[in-house]
């Protein structure tokens, strides 16, 4: 066994080791920074390359679109020219046919005399009434006068008579003389304008049979 005693480092040796360690750390940092710098340069190259490829592709697409648009315009122009040519040919053919008919007929056909249109009598618009004025003759000879809405049902007139009559309370029916019509139970559900009572009419009470 070695009995040699390990001597502690002197202050100078400690400083030397610390300097060497710091130098290694600095060297590794420089190497890492250099590596990162190279990687950044490569990434920038790749980015620029990709950007150039995208720009080239976009330019090609735009050129293709421009060529396509130019071709479409050329086709449209050609179609317009052909359509115009066809119209002119149709006009010339029509002129030729007219000339041939004229030569075969020995003269121009007599022009038809247009008859003036017959005068049209103005049609007066049908007036719409929204009210109905009724004279109601009771069985005792007295008369009730009341204005109803044109769209009210005949049942409203019957109710008015029942509430305001002065000839008793015997059952009654309603009728008109001109034209003569005795209103049925179904008529009481119809509006006054549908029964021909608008704008005014005379209704007569008769005793119910």
UniProtKB/TrEMBL annotation:
<dbReference type="GO" id="GO:0005737">
    <property type="term" value="C:cytoplasm"/>
</dbReference>
<dbReference type="GO" id="GO:0036435">
    <property type="term" value="F:K48-linked polyubiquitin modification-dependent protein binding"/>
</dbReference>
<keyword id="KW-0963">Cytoplasm</keyword>
<dbReference type="InterPro" id="IPR029071">
    <property type="entry name" value="Ubiquitin-like_domsf"/>
</dbReference>
<dbReference type="GO" id="GO:0032435">
    <property type="term" value="P:negative regulation of proteasomal ubiquitin-dependent protein catabolic process"/>
</dbReference>
<dbReference type="GO" id="GO:1903094">
    <property type="term" value="P:negative regulation of protein K48-linked deubiquitination"/>
</dbReference>
<feature type="region of interest" description="Disordered">
    <location>
        <begin position="28"/>
        <end position="58"/>
    </location>
</feature>
<feature type="region of interest" description="Disordered">
    <location>
        <begin position="102"/>
        <end position="124"/>
    </location>
</feature>
<dbReference type="GO" id="GO:0005634">
    <property type="term" value="C:nucleus"/>
</dbReference>
<protein>
    <submittedName>
        <fullName>Putative ubiquitin regulatory protein</fullName>
    </submittedName>
</protein>
<feature type="domain" description="UBX">
    <location>
        <begin position="127"/>
        <end position="205"/>
    </location>
</feature>
<dbReference type="Pfam" id="PF00789">
    <property type="entry name" value="UBX"/>
</dbReference>
<dbReference type="InterPro" id="IPR001012">
    <property type="entry name" value="UBX_dom"/>
</dbReference>
<feature type="compositionally biased region" description="Basic and acidic residues">
    <location>
        <begin position="28"/>
        <end position="51"/>
    </location>
</feature>
<dbReference type="GO" id="GO:0031397">
    <property type="term" value="P:negative regulation of protein ubiquitination"/>
</dbReference>
<feature type="region of interest" description="Disordered">
    <location>
        <begin position="1"/>
        <end position="20"/>
    </location>
</feature>
């Amino acid at each position: 066994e070695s009995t040699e005693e390990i001597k502690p480092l002197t202050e100078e040796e400690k400083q030397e080791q610390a300097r060497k360690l710091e130098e290694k750390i600095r060297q590794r940092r420089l190497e890492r920074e250099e590596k990162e710098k190279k990687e950044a340069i490569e990434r920038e190259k790749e980015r620029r390359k990709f950007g150039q490829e995208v720009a080239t592709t976009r330019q090609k697409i735009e050129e293709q679109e421009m060529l396509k648009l130019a071709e479409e315009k050329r086709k449209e122009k050609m179609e317009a020219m052909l359509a115009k040519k066809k119209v002119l040919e149709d006009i010339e053919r029509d002129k030729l046919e007219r000339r041939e008919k004229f030569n075969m007929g020995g003269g121009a056909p007599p022009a038809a005399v247009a008859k003036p249109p017959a005068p049209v009598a103005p049609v007066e618009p049908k007036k719409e009434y929204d009210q109905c004025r009724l004279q109601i003759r009771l069985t005792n000879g007295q008369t009730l006068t009341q204005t109803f809405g044109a769209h009210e049902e005949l049942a409203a007139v019957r109710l008015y008579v029942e509430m305001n009559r002065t000839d008793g309370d015997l059952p009654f029916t309603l009728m008109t003389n001109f034209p003569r019509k005795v209103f049925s139970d179904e008529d009481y559900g119809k509006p006054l304008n549908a029964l021909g009572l608008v704008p005014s009419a005379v209704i007569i009470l008769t005793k119910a049979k």
